[in-house]
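Subject: two folds for Thursday's group meeting

Dear M.,

Sorry for the delay on this. The cluster queue was jammed most of the week, so I only got both jobs back this morning. I'm pasting them in the order they finished. Each block is the input sequence followed by the predicted structure tokens. Could you check whether the formatting survives your parser before we put anything on slides? The first protein is the one we discussed after the seminar.
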Amino acid sequence: MAKETPASSSMPSGLKAYTVPIFLFVLAMFFQLFLLPRSFPPSHYDVLGVKMYSSVDDVKDAYQTVASKWDSGSGVSLPADFVKIQYAYELLTNLVWKRDYDLYAIDESVHIIEELEKQYAVEDFAKIKLPLLEVVSYEPEREGFMSITSQDFASKFQDSKPWLIQVYSSGSNSSAQFATVWRRIVALLDGVANHAMLELGDVQLVTYLAEKKPTGQVFFRKAMVYISERCNDYTLGFEGELSADAITDWFATTVLGLPRVFYHTKETLVSKFLSKVPPNKVKVILFSQTGERATPIVRQAAKDYWNFASLSHVLWREEDASFWWNALEVESAPAIVIMKDPGSKPVVYHGSGNRTWFLDILEQNKQLLLPQLRSTTSMELGCDARGYSRAGYDKVTWYCAILVGRQSVELNKMRETMCRVQDALSKYDDSDDASKDPSITPAASAHKSKRLSFAWLDGEAQNKYCFFYVQSETSYDTCGTRRAPIDVPRILIVRYHRNATETANAEQKSSKWPKTVWQSEADDVDPAAQLVVSYDGTAEIPQIIKWLSKMVDDGDNRNLPFYRAKTPELVPESAEPMRSGVPKTVKATQKLLSLWNRIKDYLADPRMGPTLLLGALLSAGNVWWMRSRSSTQQPAQTNQPSPNQPADNVEEKKKKERKREQRRRNAKEEEVPASITDNEPKDAVQILSSGSDSD
């Protein structure tokens, strides 16, 4: 059997070592020969046979030369060639079009070449109608749009609102056609963002706002319109359908980070919207005829009033007209329906108005008729012993009627009852002495003067606060976690009283002597005294009003004890999360699209081929140097067999090596004694000292 030669055995290992350089070389050749030519098709200058960026005069001379050949019959007169040459001539002799093509590679009418080639494939090119391109002069100032330049750019960007900028060309037909869409965008963004237009001739500012390829060339992914936003020194470009709906939705979601307002049908309105709105928020339903997405104004309002109201859209259909009339008394769209407390009549506004009209409606109806007592509303409602009355800081006595209970049907019924009680007190007229009712007047007067407030409290979420006021054997029917299928709402009235003399004496006493631990705990009380009374009568509105009036009258006229205590803190209830910004799935799609666009930009970079070739050469040189170094500095070890050494000799040498290693281990074990006293020399003599007792 023939032995394998060293050269033949090292060939596979050599190819394996040079795998990376070979791969980079093949990739560089593929890029240079196939990918790069597709990224750089012949330019319009090449069609006319002139240098890139030639002047208009050179272009005209080249065109005249080609035209003279055609007239004499010496040149090839195919319709396709004529269309390309004529198109290049018209494009490069127009100063605006030539500028856009040279600086930004914009050629918005290139599709005309392919269309004419198909149309006149078999006909004489003399039948082609000239000119191929229509000259357009677009001036946005005539349309009433605001323009910016590099001179006034810094002065106009002093507003905190973001800007939406359209970059246009004065000679672009697409920009002129886009004016209608831009007018709609401007109307939708009124009051939410600023807007302006920038002409491509302002090279300095356009270069700052536009995207740049890896080579540094300025470009736009959309031919004529590029939406850019500047806020905190950054820009964003828009990619997508050039419609008012798509652009405003992108701007409101990506740039402004506004929450979305979804559409619901009559089947899903209750289950997916009304039942999921927190009980402390107003429900706003917007009826639309067109079904277009929520405008930025509506979405901005949804963000500004997030703690007060939740918004939803409903598409109006004529077949559902009777349903909406019976349910919400909506006659037609557009309309706005505001639903407040349970059992209260919805407030309906028909027609469409401007931004101010819409915001005024929300501002007037943002509060519930019976507001919820929360950590964020206690001071505003005057239902806090650490605060003051709604009537002013000079009022020393004020009241808060609180409906306490867990979320249930019974609580909703009592909320409806308390709303009617509050409404009756608001409408009570005490100017007529004949119609005055002594059993109602105290409560009505206190309510009108803002000394009597109404609120409701979630007894389960605010269980400590609830138990502090409801101290009875049946308090678990009202406060805390539901233990039985029993829910008993309760009406409480809390009398707050501030005594300036008592407060001053307490402060003077605490300032003279140092406080002990017990004194500190005793002095840690609310500044206002509280007296709490629970209503145990029927749920009849007249009875509740008379009871409230008696409590107010007694609190104002009787000398009640001044007792202060430490009220438990209201637990900050978790706010409803705001679903704003771009969804995660859309973000992932955008990142993938951005990555793909980046890859395409690099594939069109002419420096990629030489870079890959240089990488292949450097990698090959590194592999050769490492292999040469390992072959010259290879250690001469006896146990390392040569490639052509027989297998028997190798095994024999290994056995000998193992035997020598075993002998070395045995010799080391014999030379070292187990202990220093184990062995005694033969010629050893014991010498006794002179003072030894052996004598």
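Second protein, same layout:
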Amino acid sequence: MLSANDFASASWELVVRVDHPDEEEQRDVTLRVSGDLHIGGVMLKLVEQINIAQDWSDFALWWEQKCCWLLKTHWTLDKCGVQADAKLVFTPQHKMLRLRLPNVKTVRLRVSFSAVVFKAVSDICKALNIRRPEELSLLKPSSDYFKKKKKKDKNNKEPLIEDVLNLESSPTTSGPPVSPGLYSKTMTPTYDPVNGTPVSSTMTWFSDSPLTEQNCNILAFSQPPRSPEALAEMYQSRSLVDKTKLNAGWLDSSRSLMEQGIQEDEQLLLRFKYYTFFDLNPKYDAVRINQLYEQARWAIVLEEIDCTEEEMLIFAALQYHISKLSSSAEIQDFTSESEVDEVEAALSNLEVTLEGGKADNALEDITDIPKLADNLKLFRPKKLILKAFKQYWFVFKDTSITYFKHKELEEGEPVEKLNLRGCEVVPDVNVAGRKFGIKLLIPVADGMNEVYLRCDHENQYAQWMAACILASKGKTMADSSYQPEVLNILSFLRMKNRNSASSLASSPENMDMNPECFVSPRCAKKHKSKQLAARIMEAHQNVAQMSLVEAKLRFIQAWQSLPEFGLTYYLVRFKGSKKDDILGVSYNRLIRIDAATGVPITTWRFANMKQWNVNWEIRQVAIEFDQNVSIAFTCLSADCKVVHEYIGGYIFLSTRSKGQNETLDEDLFHKLTGGQE
């Protein structure tokens, strides 16, 4: 039997700092503990000694030196490695955080600082009514991100609090299940599927949500356009190397906010990180679609993604249309005249889901792979040779293009066969100049083969372009996405088709427009205001009949059709190379790009990837592909974990299917993205 003296010698003093939110100063509490006392017992002793009657269930122990939470309450102090010199803090797991949303609104809500970021983002998205939270993450901005804004606020003497939407009662806490808010697929549409506005009759079903009707409107509606002066302050001319800095600050999804040094009430950016937007549905996704539109809009206006002047005017026309509809009285009136019976709507929705849409020609699609055959012009760039296109007879079958000198020689030996699987497809179009070109960058052993095709008219271009896009992903024209892709390309071309006969420059509606609000500052400098307004109104004619949600979806589709869409850039040094290169990470491939010229050097597809890992000692990412191709690189513009997580995250998202319920396999995500650090 141990005597009291023996017990005393086996025990020791542990000092714990109590971070009590109601007290201005933190206070230290000294406990006498032994190594075999479990963490739960330490917290029990602590609460007894503090002797304040309150709910302590959200409090946990944070170990400052080790920068980790002690959440396994059944573990003993010995097992955790806690000794007398440990600096422990007894602090709430949920703290306030300010999040800058894609629409540049800041929301302030209570977030778990102890859960991994993947789980914290999931809870945040539930509170904000954004489905598919796996597509978003938190980005820590560079130190100068908010400086210009603060300067502007100071000059205007506007209090910053006006910009903050306070959701302090947000239900992102543990314990009871998270309130669904407006986030529910079991109900009939919580949003009007035509204009994307909340349907007022459903608001009462979710009265426990922090998203009141007013707050929901702030997140689901487009904000008024910024002034040209504000845009000029935010705008920075960016080279490709500058763009690599934009994505350096993504937080590690496998670690908590506290472990990554995030402070209470710090400001982070909530952004769509992965550019694969699954199951966008206007019935449930008003907030998601609007935030996605806003992220796309800012990327265009601040030139974070490149587009032609012609495309910039289409984006401007859509922005103007969306801005006009968002501020009009009809949209703000939530009483819908033609309310559909809710049960009937739910049943018809279920019927479509069960039947999986129309499948009349399913067998025909499987057995009969279509082909395209037509006269096109071809050009292969060579040094010191002018661009001269030559006509050939082209045949597109499966995922390959073969071409012949004449149609009559189709049964014979082709001039060349181009395998498009894994290639880069870039539009080379000027509708006003009747130029419909397709640029193909085809991967070969020592880099990329560059080939230009030229079509005669819109329909031919849409068919061949859609076939090339699908072939690059390893799909044929028998795939169900081929016809929608053709229609999507045609609709985008029609938006570009300006009506030169229009005389809108002097219309009263045009005179009220401030055109510099809708284009990048660099584009605005090239044109006089009246000239720019006339060109935007010209493009607006092609979108004027669209509903609000249709215009937002069309904007997102047009953004997705840009050559640079979905590419996230990092500055890297490849093993064996003497110079830095840029690595472009996309949803289905990696691209090595020359940092000086911006020209793609080679492409590797995830579909051909056998394995990837990280050597944490030298911070090097190594990837093995089919046919004994292997690459290795170190990351210079960000931590290698960020790039590793991007690759694993895209592979994880590719496993989603509509047949699944909306619960995610979080363990699989961490297995694919966490690495074996």
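Two things I noticed about the second structure. Residues 309-327 form the longest helix (19 residues). The first strand starts at residue 11 and ends at 18.

Cheers,
T.
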